[in-house]
Design a protein that fits this description.
Helix content is 76%, strand content 0%. By secondary structure, the chain is mainly alpha-helical. It has a domain of 169 residues: MetI-like (MetI-like fold). Helix 3 crosses helix 6, helix 4 crosses helix 6 and helix 7 packs antiparallel against helix 8. The mean pLDDT is 82.
């Protein structure tokens, strides 16, 4: 009886210790971010540290213009379309590669390792290499050409690995049943394969968008004379010493949460509809 209570006490001690470590990690991770969010709502006389001087949206309004705080709206007008293009291409290429790699073909192993190798290549070195290649070929670097290719070298390996895991659990019997019922290849793909893989495709899209929107190293030497949001933030740290930086961090974080929430919500709706159709409620 005593040994049982002793072991239960040890389990409780371990539980509380691990819980305390996790709480400390969360505070360490999100505490500085929370300080930034709070300080971004300071008044016009606010500084970069506590205590706060008033409460207002002054520093958010400062970001809408092109002045001492930089060209945020211009950077957003480039970063968001770039992230959407990267997202679409990542999903399309990853899906196509997942379909192709279901069967072994000559050079498939080498091709796979070449794609994955870009994960371990230093992003800044890769950015310099792409910039030099464009210069050698006589092309101008820009966010929709060289930066697009550089970011795809970062997002595609993640999309590929996710899609391989999805196809590893995908049964070809669904496709065979569709063909037995008279569906052609396009109908099988559009009506059977894509709906089944849709949650995984949304996950790949989420990776593609967030990795592209947040990428700095691979974009620094490939975006040309214009900035994306991460480079604009880096530029602001060199000459802006006001809570505008904090307001920008708050806005970009909010946008990230909106994108993540939209993706997770879409996956939840799909799963709920599938459950409803299985139980007869859909």
């Amino acid at each position: 009886m005593a040994s049982t209570s002793l072991s239960a006490g040890r389990r409780n001690w371990t539980f509380y210790a691990l819980g305390a470590i996790f709480i400390a990690y969360v505070v360490f991770l999100y505490g500085p971010m929370l300080c930034i969010y709070i300080l971004s709502f300071q008044g016009p006389q606010g500084g970069l540290a506590f205590p706060m001087r008033g409460v207002s949206l002054h520093w958010f309004r400062q970001l809408l213009g092109q002045g001492d705080t930089g060209d945020l709206m211009g950077a957003l007008s480039r970063s968001v379309p770039l992230a959407l293009i990267v997202m679409a291409l990542t999903v399309l290429i990853s899906l196509s590669a997942g379909m192709a790699f279901r069967s072994r073909f000559p050079g498939s192993g080498l091709l796979f390792y070449l794609v994955i190798a870009s994960l371990v290549a230093p992003g800044y070195v890769l950015s310099i290499g792409i910039g030099l290649m464009f210069q050698l070929l006589g092309f101008d670097t820009n966010w929709y050409t060289s930066a697009l290719g550089a970011q795809l070298s970062w997002t595609l390996p993640f999309g590929l690995l996710i899609m391989f895991a999805i196809f590893g659990r995908f049964s070809r019997s669904y496709e065979e049943a569709a063909r037995d019922l008279g569906a052609n290849q396009f109908q099988t793909m559009w009506l059977i394969v894509v709906p089944i893989l849709l949650p995984g495709m949304i996950a790949v899209a989420l990776f593609g968008f967030t990795l592209s929107y947040d990428e700095f190293a691979r974009t620094l030497q490939t975006t040309g004379p214009t900035n994306t949001v991460p480079i604009e933030i880096w530029s602001m740290t060199q000459n802006v010493t006001s809570p505008s930086l904090y307001a920008l961090g708050t806005l970009t974080t909010a946008l990230s949460f909106v994108v993540i929430g939209t993706a997770l919500g879409a996956i939840a709706i799909i799963q709920r509809r599938r459950l409803g159709s299985l139980t007869g409620r859909g």
